[in-house]
Amino acid sequence: AQSVTQLDSQVPVFEEAPVELRCNYSSSVSVYLFWYVQYPNQGLQLLLKYLSGSTLVKGINGFEAEFNKSQTSFHLRKPSVHISDTAEYFCAVILMNRDDKIIFGKGTRLHILP
Amino acid sequence: GVTQSPTHLIKTRGQQVTLRCSSQSGHNTVSWYQQALGQGPQFIFQYYREEENGRGNFPPRFSGLQFPNDSSELNVNALELDDSALYLCASSFGQEGYGYTFGSGTRLTVV
After folding, report:
1. In what order do the strands lie in the sheet with B71-76?
2. Which residue(s) pair with B36 in the sheet?
3. Which residue of A16, A19, A75, B106 has the fewest CB atoms within a 10 Å radius of its CB?
4. Beta bridge partners of A67
5. What are phi and psi of A84, to 5 degrees?
6. In A78-95, which positions are buried (b, 16+ CB within 10 angstroms) versus exposed (e)?
7. Which residues of A touch B39 (CB under 8 A)?
8. In terms of CA atoms, which chain B residue is nearest residue A31?
9. What distance in Å separates residue A93's CA from the closest CA in chain B?
């Protein structure tokens, strides 16, 4: 069965420090990959997506992610976080043979420490 | 964008509820997701041109409608306590999930 695993439920990091949020997926078919952000009491906002091409994907708000097919990973990184990055981050996949639904991980809560 | 109403709702177990969504103009596909507390969103179903064309692992008491005027509904009958969640609507042009725009959700509490 297909699944998305976010290895950390919470990640504390000091302001202006770098951060990496980890994501691994399991699928028998090829996938598209996504990161979404959810600010408190809000819906989901797309940070970035990988559909094809370069495995290094740049998104909004200074975030980037790298697709590693051999390790089935799609880790999210930012070189310097800001207090406004405090949010829940969701890794997600879409199966290429079932592209109507998005399969989400359980989320990682990013805590920015002053 | 995508707008949802109401933003919050409290219902009693056994009741029925209707949640509404207004899609982004020009979008012909709408999907609904359920996000329980502390979990990622889970796919309920997708409507394309007013017909259901994809469904997740949700019972038939979850149903939907899509109207020609960019609006849609999610109906849940015989509410259970476990139905308490944030319900997210997403719309796109085309059935592919990678084009979705999400609304801010409706927080449903069942007591």
Report:
1. B3-5, B17-22, B71-76, B62-66
2. none
3. A16
4. A74
5. -70, -10
6. beebeeebebbbbbbbbb
7. 106-107
8. B98
9. 9
Residue located via tokens 């359980």: A106
State whether residue A4 sits within 8 Å of chain B by CB: yes
Q: Who contacts B69 (Cβ-Cβ below 8 Å, separation ≥6)?
A: none
Size of interface A-B (CB pairs under 8 A): 61
**pLDDT tens by residue, B38-54:** 899 999 999 988 999 89
Percent of chain B with pLDDT over 90: 77
Question: What is the structure's pLDDT at B61?
Answer: 98
Please tell me which of the candidates A42, A101, A105 has its beta carbon nearest to residue B40. A105
Per-chain mean pLDDT for chain A: 94
| Partner B contacted by A11 (CB < 8 A) | no
Report pLDDT digits (tens) over A15-55. 999 999 999 999 999 999 999 999 988 889 999 999 989 99
The two three-digit tokens of residue B85, written as one number: 């969640």
